[in-house]
Write a structure and sequence with these properties.
The protein has 348 residues and is an alpha/beta fold. The protein has two domains: 158 residues, Periplasmic binding protein-like II (D-Maltodextrin-Binding Protein, domain 2); 142 residues, D-Maltodextrin-Binding Protein, domain 2 (3-Layer(aba) Sandwich). The protein is built from 13 helices and 15 strands. Helix 6 links the parallel strand 9 and strand 10. The chain is elongated, with a radius of gyration of 25 Å.
Length: 348
């Protein structure tokens, strides 16, 4: 066989090497190719945009991401431990400590969406607070005061609370049991959005309102603490057993709208971290996902801004995709660093 001239042989060798290296380069850039992530999301829609942000980041790594399955807390934690779903980014801790049994059965916490900035508590309208000098939840435990917030005629204060299956519902139920609130308050535990829509209507009509909320959440954009409403303090902190070790961590410094201008403001609830929760076996098989979850952070203010836009009507699936794309584009340099770390986790 006639031998190729040296320059042609070298060129052919280089070409073959380049062709052979293409799949390897593509694999390094797209470590999730041919892998589907079975994503879940919470029933509270204030966490759906974060799920979309992570979805688009996973897709940049080559993963196919399923249409999210919307789940309440108990079925999610059971499903992720069993591997029926792979992950969500809507864990609230310590609020979800009650599901810690599942972390010994196949689920784990990995990374943070937002650390420490998720606040919770009870609020009333500012006008009623100032007219009756109300600064504590305990101040409402008088029949004539509770009756101010009664919209149904039963003499009990209507409290917009949380639907069954939410972590906050368990804490509120604990408060009712420990503090005997059943004699004074009536918890509204159906749809939170519907309950808050009714509260907004009553507020617009000049009527007193009483509600639970968390941050980031559109409610504190519609009803601004310090202007429209105030955060009530709690004289005594009592939490479910899995959170009682945080009973001394319920004061928030510099909180705008704390009733009576108190600083720090003792909300009776510890601040929460918003965290991804994933199936351990899935993470072990997908180191790029683990690495990405470990490094991504979304500022609380950005979550709040999106929630406010969603409350103004930008809440369709297309809106969520667009908002996530815009956020990623606005943070492109940081996002590229995160994606590089995820790819390096596979290469290593």
């Amino acid at each position: 066989m006639k031998r190729l001239p040296n320059f042609r042989r070298l060129a052919t060798t280089a070409l073959c090497a380049g062709i052979l290296s293409l799949p390897l380069a593509a694999a390094a850039d797209q470590p999730g190719e041919r892998t589907t992530i079975n994503l879940a999301r919470a029933t509270w829609d204030t966490g759906w945009w974060q799920a979309e942000v992570y979805t688009q980041l996973f897709e940049e790594l080559g993963y196919t991401v399923s249409q999210p399955t919307t789940l309440d807390n108990p079925p999610f934690y059971q499903a992720v431990a069993l591997g029926d779903v792979d992950l969500w980014v809507n864990g609230w801790f310590p609020l979800h400590n009650t599901y810690e049994e599942f972390f010994a059965e196949g689920a784990e916490l990995v990374g943070y969406v937002a650390e420490g900035g998720a606040l919770q508590g009870y609020l009333i309208d500012r006008a009623t607070a100032e007219a009756h000098d109300l600064a504590y939840v305990e101040d409402l435990l008088e029949p004539e005061i509770a009756a101010l917030f009664d919209a149904t005629g039963n003499g009990l204060a209507d409290l917009v609370a949380c639907p069954p299956g939410w972590g906050c519902e368990e804490v509120i139920s604990h408060h009712f049991e420990v503090f005997g609130w059943d004699e004074y308050f009536h918890p509204i535990t159906a749809s939170y959005s519907a309950g808050m829509a009714d509260a907004l209507g009553r507020f617009a009509a000049g009527e007193p309102i009483f509600f639970y909320t968390w941050t980031p959440n559109w409610t504190v954009g519609e009803l601004v603490p310090g202007e429209d409403v105030v955060w009530l303090q709690m004289r005594e902190t009592s939490l479910p057993e899995d959170q009682m070790h945080l009973a001394d961590a319920t004061e928030v410094e510099g909180l705008a709208g704390c009733a009576g201008g108190a600083d720090p403001c003792d909300l009776g609830w510890p601040a929460n971290d918003i965290r991804p929760v994933a199936n351990s076996a899935f993470l072990d098989a997908n180191p790029a996902v683990r690495a990405l979850l470990e490094v991504v952070r979304i500022p609380i203010d950005d979550i709040f801004a999106q929630n406010a836009a969603m409350n103004e009507g930008e809440d369709s699936p297309a809106d969520l995709r667009r908002q996530a794309s815009e956020w990623i584009a606005a943070n492109r340099d940081q996002v590229d660093d995160w994606l590089s770390e995820a790819r390096e986790a596979v290469e290593g």
